[in-house]
Amino acid sequence: MENKFYITTPIYYVNDKPHIGHAYTNIVADLLARWREQQGEDILYLTGTDEFAQKTVDAAKKNNEEVHEYTDRMASIWQSTWEKLKLSNSDFIRTTEERHIATVKDFWGRVDAAGDIYKGKYEGLYCKGHEAFMKEDELTPDGLCPDHKTKPEWISEENYFFKLSAYQDKLLDFYNDHPDFVAPANRFHEVKSFVERGLEDISISRENRPWGIPVPNDPHHVVYVWFDALINYISAVGMERWEEHPADIHVMAKDITRFHAVIWPAMLMSAGLPLPGQILAHGFFTINGTKISKSLGNAIDPLEIANKYGNDALRYFLLREIPFGEDGDFSEEKMKERYNGDLANGLGNFAARVLTLAEKEEFVMENGEWRMENEFQEQIDKMKKTVYAKVNQFRFHEALAAVWEAIAFGDKYVNENKLWAIADEKERRRKLFSAVTLLDNLAATLLPFMPETSRKITASIQWEGKRLKAKKPEILFPRIR
Ligand code: ME8
Predict the structure, then answer these.
(1) How many CB atoms lie within 10 A of CB 31?
(2) Is there a single domain that holds both residue 94 and residue 237?
(3) How far is the CA of 7 from the centre of ligand 1 (A)?
(4) Is the CB of 227 inside a 6 Å radius of any atom of ligand 1?
(5) 189 closest CA partner among 133, 197, 251, 394
(6) Are residues 336 and 421 in the same domain?
(7) How does pLDDT run across 334-360, given as a tens digit for each residue?
């Protein structure tokens, strides 16, 4: 149990349902979880919902629902989305759960005992969209939040503060000692220069709010939603397990890297708890070139795409099309192009051709050996080596490109050698056996990327002692017009 590889996604606000950007984060975490599982590790993969935001209350009101009813309904939409996409998360945490509330209180007590919490007056601008305070120079000339296009609220109230400023040097030392703490490297650079510019203490409570976790011993205040949210990563596994083995990887987009790479480590240092292994940040998606936004009504529902193209095709597209870490654009046109090109004509066609030919053959080991064409063995070794290196560098698009290079090799080989027309039985079988073995290895390599497809292919290739039996699978990717 203690040695389980622990990977997390952000916990999402429930004022809306999941869109393609959220699905991307959870698919990346799913890929890494399955990848590590394939390397023989036990996995703990956590996702969930962040329910104590002030905007949750607004959204419930707008829907004429009690806030509890609203959060229950929305949390189940998030949960069932991940189930329908067949993601492998082993837990789903809601911040309204008792296990979380108790952990937040415990955590607050530790930070307080360390002398890092004090009461003060807060005056400033608060953007509900970000659930964060903003500085005037961060706003547009007419005083709006540049991301949410709304006017931040002027707040003047008594708050508890966390002495973030006391952690500047400790954070910089930690970053120095852990050169891979934030990936990709350009994001780490941004984080470091932010901290080098100096840190201010942050407000960690709100006064007289009806919704939130009460501050221990001061029920007039609730814990600020970000302070509470970050602690979810501990709540899910328990304080003891976190002390023994904190999260290995927190996956997210670049919008919330600062919270995870600056505030969260400082909170943990204050509470005397170990820090996570790595903060992994991807870029931001646009849809047909524009920002995903509720007001524009352009948010793409990942389930709609998955229903039309299949879960694996959605995974493939997102992982293949966008270099990890960079911003990317989702368009259905490009999705369809990749689907018909890479999947229907590429992998699907190759698998169908090879297995249809192989179905008619008898493959039997000779003198205790399977005879392979050298070229195939070389392709398989090269593909595996590249994929291993690329996934470890989070260059998923290049890992997939290496798999598709092997498919192209196989396709070309089948054509050039006219495998269907070789008269010599021994030669024909050896060549076809090589092609089936390539396909089998493709399927194994693709398991973390496209689990359903991988299993379908593997199920069509049965090794039975000294025999190999192949059968034609159902059509993997029916062409879509
Ligand atoms: O920030 N492109 O929740 P959130 C790519 N509750 N990814 C996107 C995206 C886009 N256009 N839009 C959203 C919060 N995401 C807090 C987190 S964690 C302790 C608390 C994904 O619902 C991406 O993973 O606003 C981003 O980091 C996250 O959703 C923000 O989710």
Answers:
(1) 24
(2) yes
(3) 16
(4) no
(5) 197
(6) yes
(7) 999 999 999 999 999 999 999 999 999
Q: Which of 17, 50, 279 should be mutated for ligand 1, with most atoms under 8 A from CB?
A: 50
At 1, the pLDDT band (50, 70, 90 cuts) reads very low
Q: Could you give the percent of the chain with pLDDT greater than 70?
A: 99
81 and 22 both lie in a single domain: yes
CB 284 less than 6 A from any atom of ligand 1: yes
The domain tally of the chain equals 2
The domain of 126 spans 4-305
Phi, psi of 286 (to 5 degrees): -115, 165
Q: How far apart are alpha carbons 86 and 76 in whole angstroms?
A: 15
Atom of ligand 1 nearest to the CA of 251: 24
pLDDT per residue as tens digits for the range 184-215: 999 999 999 999 999 999 999 999 888 999 99
Residue 11 in contact with ligand 1 by CB distance below 6 A: yes
- For a pocket test of ligand 1, which of 78, 87, 252 has the largest count of ligand atoms closer than 8 A to its C-beta? 252
Does 22 contact ligand 1 (Cβ within 6 A)? yes
CATH number for position 152: 3.40.50.620
Q: Are residues 136 and 281 in the same domain?
A: yes
Q: Flag the least confident range among 23-32, 111-120, 146-155, 261-270.
A: 146-155
**What are phi and psi for residue 104, nearest 5 degrees?**
-60, -40
More confident residue, 136 or 378: 378
Q: Residue 148: what residue type?
A: H
Assigned domain for 18 exists: yes
341 and 291 part of one domain: no
Would you state the pLDDT for residue 456? 97
Residue 366 DSSP symbol: B
Looking at the structure, tell me whether residues 338 and 298 fall in a common domain: no
At CA 425, angle to CA 424 and CA 426, rounded to 5? 95
The answer to whether the CB of 56 is under 6 A from ligand 1 is no
User: Does the Cβ of 281 fall within 6 Å of ligand 1?
Assistant: no
| Model pLDDT, residue 149 | 86
Q: Percentage of the chain with pLDDT > 90?
A: 88
- Whether 38 and 30 have beta carbons less than 8 Å apart is answered as no
Does some domain include residue 481? no
Among protein residues, the one with the nearest Cα to ligand 1's atom 30 is 12
Rounded to whole angstroms, the Cα distance separating 18 from 302 reads: 8
**Residue 358 sits in a domain of what CATH number?**
1.10.730.10
Question: Are residues 406 and 300 located together in one domain of the fold?
Answer: no
Residue 111 belongs to a domain: yes
Could you tell me if residue 476 is inside a domain?
no
Q: Is 131 in the pocket of ligand 1 (CB under 6 A)?
A: no
- Of all protein residues, the one whose alpha carbon is nearest to atom 4 of ligand 1 is 12
